[in-house]
Amino acid sequence: MTEAPLISVENLTRLYTVGEEEVRALDGVSFDVQRGEWVAVVGQSGSGKSTLMNLIGALDTPTSGSYRINGHDVEKLSDDELADLRNNEIGFVFQTFQLLSRSTALANVELPLVYRGVSRKERRELAVKALESVGLANRMHHRPNELSGGQRQRVAIARALVGSPSLLLADEPTGNLDSATGEEIIRLFGELNRHGHTILLVTHEPRLAARCPRAIRLSDGKVVADGPGAEVASLGAPPAPPPHAGAAA
Amino acid sequence: MKRLRRAWAELLEGFRIASGALVGARLRTFLTTLGIVIGVSTVIAIVAIIQGLDRSFEAQIQFLGAHTLYVDRAPWIQSDNTWWMYRNRKKITLEELRAVQRESRLAVSVAPMVGTRAKVARGGVELESVNVRGTTEEYLEANGGGVQAGRFLVTGDVELARNAVVLGTDVVDRLFPGEAPSAAVGKKVLVAGRPFQVVGVLERQGQLLGMPLDNVAVMPYPTFGRIFGTQRGMVISVAAPPGKVAELESELTPILRRARRVMPGKPDDFAFNRQDQFLKLYKQLTGALYGMAVGVGLITLIVGGIGIMNIMLVSVHERTREIGVRRALGARRSTILIQFLIESAAVAALGGAVGTAVGLGVAQLVALLSPLAAAATPSAIIFGIAFSTATGLVFGIWPAWRAANLDPVEALRYE
User: Fold this and answer.
1) Which of B274, B297, B327 represents a domain boundary (last residue)?
2) Which of B13, B409, B412 sits opposite A98 (nearest CB)?
3) Is the pTM of this model over 0.80?
4) Which domain does B245 fall in, by range?
C-alpha cells in the first residue's frame, strides 16, 4: 500500500508515577492502522489498552514515542491543538455512553459541531442526518433518560460520526448493554466499516475481538499479538469460556 | 471568520448551559443570588436616598448666592465646640456696612441683613413667629431668588423707611388662605403690631436642612431699626462678580479690619460665610454615608461572591464527567473556562438585577413614608448590575479555572 497509514504508532510509552513507584502502562507499542480498517485492541484489564485508547484519542500525551494520525504529530501538539484534533479527527464511543443528560439527542449530537464553529442551521442538518443513519430519526427530541441503553449508544455513535472524523474510537461500546443490544451495536459498527469508516475498538472481550478483521493484543503494556481478529482472540484466551460468562465479566 | 463563528457558537452554548443550569436548580440559584441581592439592594437604596438628598439640598442652597460672601462676626458652621471663641466678638454694625459700601470696588451689591422673630397678623389670623428681616433693595441681587407677585423693596422704601413688606409664600398662604399670591399685594398686614403694606411676594424657596425658608417678612432696614431697635448685629451680604469671590474676600479683609479697628498682628474678629461651606459640610456628611454604603456593599458582595464561588465549585464537581465529555468532543480549556465564567457571571448579574429592583423599591418606599427624597440615576442601576456581574466573574475565576484544568481522562472516568 503506497498511501500513508491513517494511524502510525511507534514505540509508544506511557509511564505513571504512583507514589514512589513508576508504572509502565504502555511499553514501546508500535503498529499502523490503514484507512478503512476495523481493528480491535484486546487485553485483560491492566494490560494498557485504556492508556493506549487515551493516547490514540489524544486525551493524553505519551511519555515517549510518536503517534501520528492523519498527518498530525500528536505528541508535538499543544493542549488547544489536541482539543481541535479530537474535534476533527476522532469520534469517541464510550462504554457508559457519556451523553449530556439535560440535552436532547439532537443537542448531544450537535455538540462536536458547536466546538467546530459550524453554523446552527448546518449543525442541525448534519445532526439529523447522523441520527437517521443510526436509525433514531424518531427519537431526536428525547433526552437520554427517555431512551434505552441501545438507543443511547446509537446517539453516542451518531455524535461520534457527525463531524466525519477520520477515526471512530470505541471503548467497550457494548460493555453496558445486554448481549442482544450489544450485537446490534456491533453490527452497526460492521456496517459503518463497510461504508469506509476506520474503527478502533478497545475491548476486553475476545469474543468481540474475534469479529473484527484485525486485532491487537496487549499484555503488560506490550503488543503480544497483531493479526486477524479470530486468531488473536483465540491466543491466550481463557480456555473455552461460555459466551455469557465473558459478557458478564 | 471561522474562528469568530466558533467563538460565537461557544458563547451561545455557554449561555445555553448557564441558563439550563440556573433554571434546572432554581432553589440553589435563588439561595446563591441572595447574598448579592441583599448587598446590591442595600447599596442601591442608600445611594438612591443620598442622591435624592443631594438634589434637594442643592436646590435648597440656591437661595444663598453662589458668588456671595456673608460677613458675620462668627462662622455659621463651626467645628467642635468653638462657639465661645466668637461669643465676645463685636457685633457687625452700620459702620462696617458703610465702609464696605464706600471702599469695595469689586462688590456688585452690598446689603445689610438684620433679623428677628415677630408676630405677623391680618384680620383674625396671627402668625406668632415669622422671620422678619431688615435689608435694602440690593438684597435680592446678593441672595438670589425673586418675587412672584408685586415688587421687591426699592430705594425709596429704604430711604424713606416706609412700612413696606415683602412676604414669603408660607406667610401669604396662611394670611390669605385660598387666594393667589398676587391677591396679597397692596393689602395691609400688621407686623409686630404696626401696619404695613404688602408690596410683593417672594418666590417659594423650600427648606434648608429642614428649616422652612418661606416663613419670612422682608422690610426696609431703617424701618426694622425703628421698630426693633438699631443695636442688633447684622450680617452684610456682599456679591462678587462670578468667579471673583476669593478676590472679594481679600479686598474686604483690610476694609473690615480697619472699620473694626483690629490691631495689626491680631486675628480677624469677623468671618466670611459662603454657600459652598454648606456644600462642604453636606458633602462631609453624605461622604460618610457613601463610605458606609460602599463598605456595606463591598462586604456583602464579597460574602455573596464567596457564596457563588462555593456553589460554582460544587457545580464543577458535579459536572466533572460533563466537562470530560466536552473536552473529548473538542472543547478547549478556554471554552470550559468561559462556560463556567458565564454561568457565575449570569448568577451574579441576576442577583444584581433583582437587588437593584429591590433597592429602588426600598428607596421609593422610604421616600414615600419619610421626608427623605429618593432619586435613582441610571448610573446607579448600571453600576449595581455591572458591579455584581464583575463580582460573579471574579469569584467564578477559580472554579472555572479548576474546571478548565481537569484532566479529560480523569474527568471522563469520574463517577
Assistant:
1) B274
2) B412
3) no
4) 68-274
